[in-house]
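Structure (tokenized):
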């Protein structure tokens, strides 16, 4: 996703000709970059050049400038911090140009999860090999084969990369071959009931809607939400229902010692709780800090995205 951030911005600028952006370039302000505003401006100009050449954005809509250090710099006393300060920052006249990308993913729970296939063949049938497939509407879900009599096979659909879809039946086909080269095929079907949230409500069955929000990113060594994050929090707040349970997990990058990072992560969790307006009995806070890194921390973007909280909303559906 990192490599397509400029493409997302470029496409949004192309769709909204009234919007404009400012690209500010920065450096480490150390070593060969000490006081080098021209290099910082060149970084901003490189971004402008990409957007104008790739997305045909009018150059007049993109202002550039160069500075020595970002307004919220990383730790300039460490090599990692100096590298993070070598960046550009983009602001937009229209907030939608920089809105987070939202992924809507649905977890499919299969119940019961296991399909078992057995065979009534006997040893005297002289079977030498067998082949089994499970299909749904012509789509292969699972296959197995072996020598001798067919084995009883169990397929755990909940762990499969390709799960059953819709309400088409699952067809199990088995083909066996005997020592005379003769083949015999048999099949059986398993009915599938594909249940949506709407049908759960119609049947008055209980379930849970789980929503997860990530990439609420904090500045280096900060627990304050910036304006862009405030807009994201407004969207999360609108999704919280009176019966929702909320879990907030706080993280930090690998800079600093683990105890300090856990305390920083807790402050980030508390800041989010306060902004969401949640009482202690409605929320669970988990300040992980840097004890578990959710992104690799060898790159500046990985460290930046690790300064985050993840919010999980669990809302009963009846």
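Design, position by position:
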């Amino acid at each position: 996703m990192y490599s397509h951030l400029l493409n997302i911005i470029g496409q949004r600028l192309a769709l909204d000709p009234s919007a404009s952006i400012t690209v500010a370039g920065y450096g480490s302000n150390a070593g060969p970059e000490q006081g080098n505003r021209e290099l910082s401006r060149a970084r901003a100009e490189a971004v402008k050049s990409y957007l104008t050449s790739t997305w045909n954005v009018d150059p007049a809509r993109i202002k550039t400038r160069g500075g020595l250090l970002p307004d919220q710099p990383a730790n300039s006393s460490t090599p990692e911090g100096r590298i993070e300060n070598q960046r550009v920052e983009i602001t937009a006249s229209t907030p939608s140009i920089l809105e987070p990308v939202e992924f809507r993913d649905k977890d499919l729970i299969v119940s019961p999860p296991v399909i078992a296939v057995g065979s009534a063949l006997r040893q005297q049938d002289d079977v030498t090999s067998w082949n089994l497939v499970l299909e749904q509407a012509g789509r292969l879900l699972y296959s197995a084969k072996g020598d001798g009599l067919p084995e009883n096979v169990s397929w755990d659909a909940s762990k499969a990369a390709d799960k059953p879809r819709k309400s088409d039946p699952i067809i199990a086909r088995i083909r066996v071959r005997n020592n005379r080269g003769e083949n015999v095929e048999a099949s059986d079907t398993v009915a599938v009931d594909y249940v949506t949230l709407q049908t759960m409500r119609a049947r008055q069955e209980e379930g849970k809607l789980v929503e997860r929000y990530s990439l609420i990113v904090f500045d280096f060594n900060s627990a304050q939400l910036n304006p862009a994050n405030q807009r994201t929090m407004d969207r999360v707040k609108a999704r919280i229902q009176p019966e929702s349970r909320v879990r907030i997990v706080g993280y930090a990058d690998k800079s600093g010692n683990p105890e300090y990072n856990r305390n920083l992560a807790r402050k980030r969790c508390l800041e989010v709780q306060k902004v969401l307006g949640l009482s202690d009995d409605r929320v669970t806070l988990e300040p992980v800090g840097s004890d578990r890194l959710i992104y690799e921390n060898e790159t500046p973007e990985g460290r930046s995205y690790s300064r985050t909280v993840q919010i999980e909303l669990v809302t009963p559906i009846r």
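Reviewer-requested clarification: The two ends are 36 Å apart (CA to CA). The chain has three domains: 1-99, 114-190, 195-318.
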